[in-house]
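As agreed, record minuted below.
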Amino acid sequence: MNVLVVGAGAVGSWLGGALAAGGTGVTLVDPGPRREAIARDGLTLIDGRRVTRVRPPLVATVPEALAAARFDVALVAVKSYHTADVAAALAAAGTHAPPRVASFQNGVGNDDILAAALPAGAVLAATLTTGLVLEADGAVRGSGRGGAGLGRSAGGPPSADLAAALARGGLSVSLYALPAAMKWSKLLLNLLGSATSAILGWPTGRVFADRRLFQLERAAWLEALAVMRALGLSPVALPGYPVPLYARAAAWLPPGPAHLAFGSRLGSARADRLPSVAADLAAGRRQTENAVLTRAVAEHGLATGTPVPLSRAMSDLVDDLAAGRVSRERFANRPEALLAHVAPGT
């Protein structure tokens, strides 16, 4: 089996490194500065006390990779705002493109972008739940929790061989009969703290330590669950994360006990790190992954007739901050301003 991994950030490096360690042929694609570090130092995966070092081939572009070899599957691990570029590059390759493409990206919507550009049934649903931190010199540190999820749509490509390859690399792998439920369940995890952290410039640990912000997050999460129900989907357990249990607790625990039970736990999951959208805003980028996260909940809520006022207000504000339509100083470190803007009267 020969695998093309598009994107050598935390997710792509972890997947590619695990596959290479398990004996699978892997080529990484990344045009950024990380390519130089991996080419120089190799790729190091740190999982507790286990340290794995590999040196998979690394190229700058998808066309360069496809010109050099044939691949059985491509794993897409770029930021969502680069998905259309990857889809175009794979589509332009025609029969030289891998017959299967799996999006391991956050949020919902990336699969649709890929599917619109590629042959029917080519896209394989996938997710990774391992918490990852990029370190210097091509190293990636894993949380020791989580794993990979794979599913397929009716008539879609099989995933058993990819699952076996990932397992040989040491990953826990779960297969899902309903890929949309898998992707939306991962979205629920990605939503936690995403918009609030971006707006305030706070890490998630600080967000969830604040009882008012915890309740704001909880209310937005319940909106996402309502959208899932409207789509005919129920949360499913993901590797390392009993998402259905979290959903029941969010719905039934009173506010005070809910914060006591989950506030510190949720905050410690990413502690002092900024989620993807917040990191993009902090770096001054005008593109973020909000479109496949909070914005996706708002848009699916509109499409299904599900009330999602918080998701709509939060996603609008994140987009306004990214575009420069609203000054970041207006909300940075100001939870009162955020609450007054998105949840007046609370």
